[in-house]
Amino acid sequence: MRRSIGWLLVIFTCSGSAHLGAEMLEIRVVDTSGDRLPCRIHLKDAAGAAQKADKLPFWHDHFVCPGRVELSLKPGRYTYEIERGPEFQPAAGRVNLRNEKNETLTVTLTRITDLAARGWWSGELHVHRAPEDMPLLMRAEDLHVAPVITWWNGRNLWRDRELPANALVTLDENRAYNVMGGEDEREGGALMYFGLKKPLPLPGGMRDFPEHPSPMKFVALARAEDGAWIDVEKPFWWDMPIWVASGQIDSIGLANNHMCRASMYETEAWGKPRDTKRLPPPRGNGLWTQEIYYHLLNCGLRVPPSAGSASGVLPNPLGYNRVYVYLDSGFSYDAWWQGLKAGRSFVTNGPLLVCSANGHPPGHVFQSDTPLEIDVTAEVFSNDRVRAVEIIQNGRSEQLVPLDGAAGSRVGAKLSFDESGWFLVRVIADNSNTFRFASTAPSFVEVGATRSRISRRSVQFFLDWLDERRARVPNKLRDPGHLRQVLEHHDKAESFWRHLQSQANAP
Q: What is the pTM of this model?
């Protein structure tokens, strides 16, 4: 289904009185039953300047509201876009404010699906918004899990404040956020930490401490606590092969903040760059992210994908990049993380992709003594056009199944496995400005005694990466003792990948 961005017919009624040369615009947002609906509003004047609403959370080009807001605005023409996450059709239109005339705009948002009712619960892992704004933000984006990053390099919200007795806040019986999230972002990339009782003693930012001490020092400190969760924020960060080799990583950001609502960050910033001739913008960075992830899976590693938007730092709304986790016994915060760990999930920044394989959700491990056939079903809901469902098997695009374009389109595919491997399902939307997609977590197939497929080519990909990374370290770290301490972790990672190379059983 195409994204609903056409102009709406707006009916205006009198509401209140003008004051101080400005006019009052009241916006009411409701669902199809007429109930008020928390939402996000992008309201711009004729010059394209984003408008703010008094006392409501604002970021970049939008504010959120509980379903009703009054704004004091200058006369003129305004455009609006109103959204509430990917499960609702967006609304867009324009309104003219005239002198001495107040206006009321009523907009109805329509659901395209209700995934929570089907056991799929949304969340995201990269949030830089004010903790006090989170209740309204989560309701406005229809988001269920959103740990907040309150400490990171050189900054710590709790430095002069008492730590909360309980960092977990629950809302509406099915929404929860934790205010003790952290991020270590330096020369090697970014790691995010959740489930800790207090901040880690991180060094300063990139300019102050580019390489030393190794991020692995803080990985070890975090692992000393029960319940710690460590997320690699993007696959292309230089230290990713070192972090993954440690066996301490819980998830990796497949839908990450380089993917924005209106545009893409077209380079890998200070991460490992892609070949832009082979992978040109705007989709190149998104495809590179997925290629790297597929190499990890081809090495027999089972790290589930995560999602994060960096709202509060980058232009995204909260929950633009999100991960849906399937829970078969209702929502709880702990169960959501357990489901994410098991890979019963899909990541998205637009299309909704509900899949099963032989009746199982993503993340299932199929075991058989003989060759196996698997029936995959996929149901797609999207506000952008999605032309086909793609089956990725052992890192290769094996099937492309056309969609008819209707909301809730359902298709099927049959997979055959003669030996162990993995598969996932993805869709890529028609959008010329950004990389808008959805991908399930992988499912794994174990045929006979060999549990994992380990590709020599993929292992070599990471060994070459390590060599390139090692050559960069002395350029930023001149102290011999510090250099030795950092390179110890490079040595351990190389041993891991060399050992994996000796176990390779596929090209």
A: 0.94
Sign of CA dihedral 432, 435, 438, 440: positive
Omega of the bond leading into 235 within 30 degrees of 0 (cis) = no
How long a stretch of residues is the chain?
A: 507
Residue in 480, 21, 500, 495 with CA at minimum distance from that of residue 211: 480
Domain boundary, last residue among 413, 434, 453: 453
Q: Is 485 part of any domain?
A: yes
pLDDT (tens, 9 = 90+) of the chain, 507 residues, equals 333 333 333 333 323 333 345 689 999 999 999 999 999 999 999 999 999 999 999 999 999 999 999 999 999 999 999 999 999 999 999 999 988 788 999 999 999 999 999 999 999 999 999 999 999 999 999 999 999 999 999 899 999 999 999 999 999 999 999 999 999 999 999 999 999 999 999 998 766 668 999 999 999 999 999 999 999 999 999 999 999 999 999 999 999 999 999 999 999 999 999 999 999 999 999 999 999 999 999 999 999 999 999 999 999 999 999 999 999 999 999 999 999 999 999 999 999 999 999 999 999 999 999 999 999 999 999 999 999 999 999 999 999 999 987 678 899 999 999 999 999 999 999 999 999 999 999 999 999 999 999 999 999 999 999 999 999 999 888 899 999 999 999 999 999 999 999 999 999
Are residues 361 and 338 located together in one domain of the fold? no
CA distance 413 to 356: 11
Question: 237 and 306 in one domain?
Answer: yes
Is 59 in a helix, a strand, or coil?
Answer: strand
